[in-house]
Amino acid sequence: MGIGKKKLIRPLILLIGLILGGGGAYYYINYLLTTPITLEDIEVDDTAALKLNVIEQISKKNGVTEWQLNASSATLLKARNTAVLKDINIIFYTKQHTQVHLTATSGELDTKTHDMTFSKNVIIRYQRYTLRSETLHYAKKPHIIYSNSRITVNDEDSEIEADSMQILLNQDLIILKGHVKGQFSEHIKNANLL
Amino acid sequence: AQENKTADKKQPPADLKITSDKMVAGKDQSMVEFTGNVKAVRADSILLADSLKVFFHTSKTQKEDQSNVKRILATGNVEYTEGARKAFSDQANYDTAEEILILTGEQTQARLLTGKSWISGKKITLFKTQDRVVVESSEKTRVEAFFDAEDQGGSL
């Protein structure tokens, strides 16, 4: 076989090899993509949690919205019927259609009773008033908000502090207890507390 | 009896500071009630009582340049102190616009003291801007007064 022919055979073999290799790779990848993935030996954790980012929930009673909740994340703990929330933003609707607006760093929502507990930098805004505390609870059945840690309520010219507090949302009543301290500026308009 | 000083001394507005065991505030009532060891301080006046109601003006009732605290009603073991003056009564009602303090006795007579001198009656009205005091009796009890010679100026 002439030298010309020998020279041709090697690149030819190379080319055929490349084609076969490419085809094989194509078929293998295609096989990977199409056949269903089967996972073996998975461990199921009985406190299995579902983590949701950016959650929104609305609670209604007899068709009337009682509260609307937004959070940056919610981890649902099945065993404890609890949702652990981060960066919370809630609006409560009182019977007189006024709104009570609550924000907090973290909180827990009982997914069965819809009771809630908030902690860290808890702030409530209600009409012209702002309430601050480190912990706060919402009890759905009596429809009340309460705190057992020191709270401060103020508007632009009055301020009141106390050891504990209850807001009865249905009666629009706020009750403060323990070392109550109030300061009312005399001369600025509209200082009434509620 | 009537103690009269005509100079009209309108008090500058002053913050009202209150401490108590408990506070209750209701919507639409423009009133806040403090109960339990209540102490209210305003300028140089101190009011102690079992319960204190603070009534506020609403945007409709408040006039220009008027204090937003409309009225203060203290009840139960009321003790009022202002400078050298001290008063005891069952109830005290203070109108911030008129600057009139009315002390009334239910079980006991209202009593106003300055130094060793004192005066008592069913109802004691202090007109703060005029530094004037009016004491009234009831059917059963008459006005009583005691002016101690050593007290300065013999006034209350």
TrEMBL record, chain A:
Keywords of this entry: Cell inner membrane, Cell membrane, Membrane, Transmembrane, Transmembrane helix
Pfam families, sorted: LptC
Sample GO molecular function, one term: glycolipid transfer activity
Cross-referenced InterPro entries: LipoPS_assembly_LptC-rel, LPS_export_LptC, LptC
Cellular component, GO annotation: outer membrane-bounded periplasmic space; plasma membrane
Transmembrane segments: 12-29
Signal peptide bounds: none
PANTHER family the UniProt entry points to: LIPOPOLYSACCHARIDE EXPORT SYSTEM PROTEIN LPTC
Name of the protein this chain belongs to: LPS export ABC transporter periplasmic protein LptC
Organism: Desulfobacter latus
Protein encoded by which gene: lptC
